């Protein structure tokens, strides 16, 4: 309907009848909506792989545009003779999803640089992308001993990556190098790349004597003894009984080191096809009869030389899709860096050429923290550690793999994507948590004394038990709303992580009692949270 005598409205009516759509009211014309389409993205842009192996995965993203709902078929060409893809080309990628493709390279394949072409089609629509694909000879692996050092080298023909273990310091990693440039800082036994283990009941930063054991040795430069070592053509093995970090807390002294109640077994092996990557397999056994309460273990502590100063990680919310990397400048001691969200379970330090050392700890919690010690000249260092809590109760064993990848961080990330697919075991790490009430020194009485706090694991928490003086007294209610947890643990998806229990203290004698919370997660890992020494004080 038009207003009588309105020439503009009459004109709009005439145009509308002609089939051209124009909006009325603002005097601004609009055209037909853009046609449905899709986008194609392939990452990483460069892949390296050796003959006789399978490449790291390339991630293909097909995104719908303007309401596109069609089917997209992706075909790949340009592979060296004899190579194949999985899934086999061509294959369908659903719109709005990612697909991983890996390439199997036969031993007989030609080495060199290839340009792979990705062609995506849907009806009359087509998109293309390229991938620089580099096929290298299989690396040659050497192992040998030179004085107190055990070495493993991977020689690609143009590069040499090497890992060195110092047997006078418990077999700790004192060298990860590429073409003679060592990334690892080995200034004292507390650095290196190694496990450093702690007891939550005696925190390392407290004034009290604490239980702490370091693979390399103690703070007085006494080295942990290597009990057994094996040098094989493609593996290195050491077993050590590490020393207490502060021998004076256990009746020792600078000249009298004290062995701990832990054995550390360590296997080093190359990662087939990736000459810059090495696998560390640790088996850490507690043979003592006591319990070392849940603590965030340094598994591993990673100390690197100055010059590799830029901390690099993926901090987004879509891990394993080659999303943009983040960088962070760690604070200098005595400050500690914040917990950084690292959902791909790896982190690295790199230099100005984007080369450095990446460390991948499968199954770790998705956070990493660290610091710099630039002021400790000339022995400055950079440090980071993933969040890997564990309780060393009697007979406890912590066993898993850790990977070291030297060189350009973007290439290291691609290798880590491949390694992720081989890591199928559940996480060995116990739940994080805190018994908030009661705390040591508190006094309790009555029939409804609260026992509460928070906890969450790498798998869902199944059971939260309350023990007094080592005796189970009940099971806490788990799942209360704790939105404050996310402020301390960025992007933690579950905020229903609180627990509560109400204890009738009348069943206990007046005096001091040890309150403990035991948390079991879905992987069967058991965390014993630090003990609260509490006084029960009921009237007679």
Oligomer: single chain
Q: Strand sequence of the main sheet, in spatial order?
A: 17-18-20-21-30-27-26-23-24
Which range best describes the helical content: under 10%, 10-25%, 25-40%, 40-55%, 55-70% or over 70%? under 10%
Could you tell me the CATH topology label of the largest domain. Beta-galactosidase, Chain A, domain 5
Average pLDDT rating: 91
Cα-atom radius of gyration:
29 Å
Separation, N- and C-terminal Cα atoms: 92 Å
* Continuous helix count: 3
Major beta sheet summary: 9 strands, antiparallel
> What is the count of distinct domains?
4
Which CATH C-level class of the largest domain is it? Mainly Beta
Structural class of the secondary structure composition? mainly beta
Task: Assess the beta-strand content as a share of residues.
Answer: over 45%
Q: What would you say the CATH architecture of the largest domain is?
A: Distorted Sandwich
Q: Give the overall silhouette.
A: globular
List segments where confidence is low: pLDDT < 50 over at least 5 consecutive residues: 1-27
Query: How many beta-strand segments?
Result: 40
